[in-house]
Write a structure and sequence with these properties.
125 residues
Length: 125
């Protein structure tokens, strides 16, 4: 039973991280372009406008995806409460793999939106 609870908590870390850091990226954009933290791609670091746009856009996506992942991450574990550790571990690995994909995927629409909104020099179209 302790293993089930441990895996359940581990599977909630990614959605909760997406919610917290998504909100921070969205509402508290880093003041200056930096190479240490934040949404750092070549396009997002062109100027302050692209930097702010990318953080707001990706932060919003992370908040939405984090909320969407939270409930299924809990509900998927419930039927496996009394299952073996191996079964719970496999289920948890599948859930985490899907969550990690969901964690990285917002880069694609964010970059696409940056390219739709700004030219290659970072100037709004």
């Amino acid at each position: 039973m302790w293993f089930w609870w441990t895996m359940m908590i581990c599977d909630l870390l990614i959605p909760l991280t997406m919610l917290v850091f998504g909100w921070i990226m969205w509402k508290h954009i880093p003041k200056r372009i930096n190479a240490v933290y934040g949404y750092r791609t070549a396009m997002s670091m062109k100027n302050e406008d692209t930097w702010k746009f990318a953080h707001a856009y990706c932060g919003r996506l992370w908040c939405i995806i984090g909320l969407v992942l939270l409930l299924p991450s809990i509900l998927i574990h419930i039927p496996f409460y009394s299952s073996s550790e191996q079964t719970v571990g496999i289920v948890s690995m599948i859930v985490m793999t899907v969550q990690l994909i969901a964690l990285v995927l917002p880069v694609l629409p964010t970059e696409a939106e940056l390219r739709r909104t700004f030219d290659q020099n970072g100037i709004r179209k």
